[in-house]
Write a structure and sequence with these properties.
The structure is a single chain. The chain has 2 helices and 7 strands, in the order βαββββαββ. The protein is of the alpha+beta class. A 7-stranded antiparallel β-sheet has the order 2-3-4-5-1-6-7, covered by helices on one side. Helix 1 crosses helix 2. The longest helix has 18 residues. It is globular and about 35 Å long. The N and C termini lie far apart (33 Å).
Length: 131
Amino acid sequence: MTSHHGIFMHPGHPVEALVADMALACGGRLRPTVNGPLDYIASLSNATLELEMQHEYEEDKGVPFERYQVLLTVRDSDGDMERERRTARQIYHDLTVLRRYWLALVFDLQAVIDTAAPPGQGTFPRCPRWG
């Protein structure tokens, strides 16, 4: 399995609003998938975006992945890690501008590159699922 960049997001609902925001941020159309772990996919000129409305990741290295409902994985078509990083960072930036989501931009689930929260909300809301 190759390394990749990911953007974890919360909240993930309503789904229609999130998908519309993602399409705006990535500049492409997200298509629903029929089978498999992915819910939506988008093909850009040099990357594929994979959107999962749920994931199984748990806290690791101090990052509470389980608190983020949604995962967007960015995969460069040619394996160009620098271009993939730029693509992921641009999408992340465009999502932060919307000021609606808690976000974590990560590389290979090992390194947190950046995090963001909606204005005035530096921590996650309390939720029975998270304790």
